[in-house]
Amino acid sequence: MRSDRDILIVCIFTFITVVTWIFVDFVKTTQSSTVTSVTEELLAPLPGPIDQKLLRDLEARQAFE
Amino acid sequence: MNTPQTEFTSIYQKFSHKLSGVATKPRTRTYSMLIFSLVALILLGQFAIRPTIKKILQLRREIKDKTIINRRMDEKIAGLISAQADYNSLRAKLTFLGQAIPGEPFVTKYIANLKQLESSNGVVPASMFFADVSLTAVSASQAAALEPVAAPESSAVNASAANPLLDLFTVSAKITGNYETIRAYLNALANMRRITTVSSLTIKRGSQAVSSDTSSSSLPLDVSLQLDTYYLKTE
Question: With contacts defined as CB-CB under 8 Å, which chain A residues touch B112?
Fold first, then answer.
């Protein structure tokens, strides 16, 4: 009788462990990104637009050829 | 004589008898049912439910990520098209950048430009010299190996540390002129397309007259200048 109870307790704890394991696994799967670092690099935004004022200022300066 | 078959039958009968005796107890039956149900749930959860739901979640996450990637790719493509249009419209002006900060020191050309500025603005050059300029790409470690004696920390080193893309060389010049000519010369320096900064400037009353005019603006002035100009690092 005693051994039946022990087996049941072991089964309950094993069940709790497995359920926790499955839950953690699901959370981890949901959180982890599937985007690779190479794709991240490709998606990096371009630097700002060309500074046209700077080019106009440079054009106005004296050049020696 | 007992055959193996009859022996197996008798063992089975004994076991069956014993098991039916135990299985008739209600408490044992309840425990057994619970235990087998839990074991079934554990096995089902671990080997059937978990992989299936995990795959579903992975696919959902992948769809979400791909949607975001798609949107950002569209934004990037639009940005690239806009940048290409800007580049095409400004292509002619982009050469000014190379003139402002060239890829090489072009020391002689720069000195010639300074001379031209001096003569066009009416200042009299007294002397001009410049510090060592590396004309080839030398890395910091190679430079250290070439020059084992610790050099004093120069402004060039400071500038290199401040901007890892730029190097500079320094020209020291002494000129003589009156207030107006020196002012015009300094304005012209500031207005040069090649970026030039005056890192130090000393003005003293000069000894020789630059013109016969004796007004205060024509008093001779000796000016010592230290000019920094920049070029791109080649390493």
Answer: 64
